Amino acid sequence: MTLRIALLITALSATLLASAQARSFAEIKASGTIKIATEAAFKPFNYYNGTKLTGFEVDLGNLLAKQMGLKVQWVVQPFDNLLIGLAQNRYDLVIASHGITPERQKAVDFSNPHYCTGGAIITRTNGPMTAQALAGKTVAVQVGTTYLDNIKKVSNVKEVKTFPKDSDAQSAVLLGRADAWVTDRFLGLEAVKAQNGKLVQGAMLFQERNGMPVKKGNASLLKEVNAALATVQSSGSYAKISQQYFGQDIRCK
Length: 253
Ligand code: ARG
What we know:
Helices cover about 40% and strands about 25% of the residues. The protein has 10 helices and 14 strands. A hairpin with a 2-residue loop joins β3 and β4 (about 50-55). The longest helix is centred in the first third of the chain and has 17 residues, at about 5-20. Arginine binds near residues 39, 79, 96, 145 and 146.
């Protein structure tokens, strides 16, 4: 086979892959297993406890699958790759604390929000606690996140440093390489506790509703996910895991 033909075939299969349809709920049901992707580096939402994948969103994904009569095959991907893999039909659903934004809604369809939260400033003691106080400061955020989008809107920030993982942004603040870190307010509370007086939580910069993306147009799966979410929210099982991880119910009110 000539190189030209080989390249042509590669290009053609890439096109086919990108345009292929996502698995409908009926197809997922027939296979018995839903593939759910997460990042596993956003504690307490999705993380590894030793080698065990766990967290509020992992427990929720398992609950939703059970409610839909399915087993789960978990797929772990860097945060910034999650929506790309979804478009390539590598998995059916993503649960990784994605804020529902108009920008993302162009690329994927979102479930109803599985929790409501906001992006907050976390800093060392005596660090900048408000948007105004970030003037002239260096701020660390995870790449591809709504924290990055929103910190860009704050005026006079000296520098925004991006990191592949949210935990790297936290380390930057602890090591004095950044003055503040913007992350999820619930994650921030946990980090403040874990760091034992080294970190404090400041103001919330913005609010967000976080949902679970499916491939754009996968209406049959979206419908079942929303129904399962409503059921676990009314049965008390959602409240139970939320209490377990956060000491409160974080559903949208
Ligand atoms: N809520 C933020 C966003 O929508 C951050 C999500 C980060 N999730 C993660 N698994 N690291 O962009």
